[in-house]
Input
Amino acid sequence: MSRNPRYDILFEPVTIGPVVAPNRFYCTPHALGTGNQMPHTRAAMREVRAEGGWGVVNTGYCSIHPSSDDLPLPYCKLWDDEDIKVHALMVDAVHRHGALAGVELWHGGSGTGNRMTRMPLVSASGISYDSSYPGWMNLAQSRPMDKKDIRDFRRWHVDAAKRAKSAGFDIIYIYAGMNFGPYQFLLPWMNRRTDEYGGSLENRTRLTCEIVEDMKEAVGQTCAIALRFSTDELLKVPGETMESEAHEVISMLSDLPDLWDVKSSSWVRETSSARFTGQGAQEPINSFVKPLTSRPVVGVGRFTSPDEMVSQVKRGILDLIGAARPSIADPFLPKKIDEGREGEIRECIGCNICVSGYHDCVPVRCTQNPTMGEEWRRGWHPERIAPGDPESNALIVGAGPAGLECARALGQRGLAVTLAEASEELGGRVNRESTLPGLATWARVRDYRTQLIQTMANVDVYRGSPLSAQDVIDFGCDHAVIATGALWTRQILTTEAYPITGFEGDNIYTPDDIFAGAEIESPVVIYDFNHYYMGSCLAELLRKQGKDVTIVTTANAVSAWTFMNNELAEIRVRMIELGIGIVLEHYLTEFSNGSAKLMSIYRDRTVQSIDCGSLLIVGSRKADDDLYQELNSDPDRLVDAGIKSLRCIGDCQLPGTIAHAVYSGHECARTIDTSDTAVPIRWERPELLINP
Ligand code: ADP
Ligand code: SF4
Output
């Protein structure tokens, strides 16, 4: 197939200072959870995007000096010449595919922790940012920078830029955004200086301007200098001559940098999930930039639709289509558009599981792309997979995300695949969960897979086919894969936080009951000790149906785990806006006669009662694995039926996120013909100094 001419504009080269991006697809800097500690993993995770057609591939934030240390969060660094080779590995990998490699040089100022280096934090005026950011509190205040500090600060940028050039980078960033380093000078409330670096906007912009000039002089002949700038906060500050100070900063520096990368000042807002914002949500904060500069402008917006990308360029919003999440979900997105296969794009669902990977300090994982993070250590490619034996056949029972991914990948490997699903619809839990408020995009997990499966002549799908163990035996396949999912339980917690059997009686429900259409009586108490999206999504759903809803949770926040994927604050706001009651840090101990008893989790053990017409327990899930257990209990029966392998995958193996189910299905398909499923994995190892 060939490219739709409508999308030609996306494949135009873009000149960025002394270098030329081969097209408009631009992987903006974003953390991968690898840092310098996992150079091979990192290089492979970036390389796959270059191979997939992204014209520019950047690093994540890269510290220029030990006075900007972000551990335990995984960041990369260019502190000395020894660090160059880690980056060169990635640059060479990106260059192999004709893409440009960029590095996001970063100094956090007071917006980091220096927990490992124990150096004092520095900032424009000693005003700290982030020290009260729950979860990553560092308790450290910052020291105002004196003139020597400012000279050092400029020199560190130049030294790091020279190292970046030695590593082979084509684009080198200055990070003046998101409350880091130079950005703290730009903000009037962070900068109270009375010298030439404070006061007027011109003075506050001086340091950023100097660093751009220094770096241009040092490496600008061969490397493009990009300026990453957060616009939203200064957009709210009226300018002297223009609408806002953001307008004034851009027009003051206008053509000085070779590229403007414009973004939000808050990572939470920038990575807002699909539950809260749609594609292109950053437009209000970046659409004003292009008229103020002749340099190319890049910005993000969770773009997965090529038509929306074209619109961004044609309407003069962006020159380069920035992407982090869409490039994680589908590293081959540009190639698919180029080859007229845009229908095969594995669209990001906006769930932010990738963000949680970074907070977990592990290589980011993705709900849609199970190969993300496994490129090097397991040798997984997002598009290619080793062919299997076309003479062998597999029966997959259950067509949720695990079964669908397993069927798709086994189909791609060329096995004869039969997929049996009890209900009339493929998709399993995704069918139900994508009906929750804000989660419609989650149906993409199903749609991407069913669409491809439909085109595979070697995959047969049977709907309305609940299989018993005898059915599986009678079918007589080489490989039987059980993907029958999990069910929500009525378990509650003891007051010591151990799960126990829940209450018996009427008006007690689980999420499965709600999805099955149970009519439940107001007022509703949702007892949530699952801590992810389900409790707050159901609260929203029921509230919008007009019911009085209170969430009771043992945690210190509603959907407390979502601190990890950046949804926490937006969920809280949504709960407040909808008038949903919130009781934090309490166990539920009794439910009877229209009332629920709650006990504080703390030593005071105070008890309160609230009205409760229906109790909805969002706690734990149990694998629906009876079929698997029956088959697994009788190996002779399997041998007699000619079944060589029996696997249990997804929620049926271990209830978890959709990302876990997709990964599990994919892993099964990759390894189904190996006797040992724990296939060897390569691990990164620290390099020991020969002569310390
Ligand atoms: P996962 O997330 O692991 O893919 P889901 O719960 O989403 O799990 O999907 C499990 C699917 O398995 C559901 O669509 C369910 O209807 C189906 N299923 C459960 N038991 C059987 C069975 N005995 N035969 C066929 N399909 C089944
Ligand atoms: Fe998109 Fe979710 Fe994948 Fe992140 S984890 S890239 S949000 S699909």
The domain at 393-486+623-671 is CATH 3.40.50.720 (Rossmann fold).
